[in-house]
């Protein structure tokens, strides 16, 4: 099985802080790659998708809360339980809008900066 890839916004301090936590605490096999340095075409992703949400590219492709759930499931043990829970119907109904709200307000989150709010495709 190929190594999955978790793609995030490397220009967002909040995202980078979250990924640093993942690297320290969550033993996933996934490559954690900022979209700015990823071969998006090879991954089948667009800049717009990556600006909107984190992405998981593996046997399946997912974004946002579903991508986080797959990252957790890939880590095994207690993390797998959390990943399965995020994909469970009632929890998914909550996780998706919560993820969207956090993504839209990431510049206000701990570690976030005003740069986190800027869509990269529109920056010059």
Written overview of the protein:
The structure is a single chain. 49% of the residues lie in helices and 11% in strands. The protein is of the alpha+beta class. Helix 4 (65-75) packs antiparallel against helix 5 (77-87). The longest helix has 16 residues, at 89-104. The termini are far apart.
Radius of gyration: 14 Å
- State the helix count: 6
Class per helix and strand makeup: alpha+beta
Shape: globular
**Sheet with most strands: strand arrangement:** 2-1-3-4
Q: Proportion of β residues?
A: 5-15%
| Strands, count | 4
Main sheet overview: 4 strands, mixed
Could you estimate the helical fraction of the residues in percent? 40-55%
Given as residue ranges, the uncertain stretches (5+ residues, pLDDT < 50) are 120-124
Q: What is the number of domains?
A: 1
Order of helices and strands: EHEHHEEHHH
User: Taking all residues together, what is the mean pLDDT?
Assistant: 90
The termini sit apart by: 39 Å
């Amino acid at each position: 099985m190929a190594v999955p890839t978790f793609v995030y916004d490397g220009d967002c301090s909040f995202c980078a802080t979250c990924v640093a936590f993942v690297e320290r605490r969550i033993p996933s096999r996934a490559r954690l790659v900022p979209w700015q340095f990823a071969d998006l075409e090879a991954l089948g992703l667009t800049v717009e998708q990556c600006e909107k949400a984190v992405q998981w590219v593996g046997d399946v492709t997912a974004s946002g809360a579903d991508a986080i759930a797959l990252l957790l499931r890939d880590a095994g043990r207690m993390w797998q339980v959390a990943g399965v829970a995020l994909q469970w119907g009632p929890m998914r109904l909550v996780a998706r809008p919560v993820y969207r709200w956090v993504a839209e307000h990431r510049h206000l989150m701990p570690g976030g900066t005003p740069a986190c709010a800027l869509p990269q495709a529109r920056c010059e």
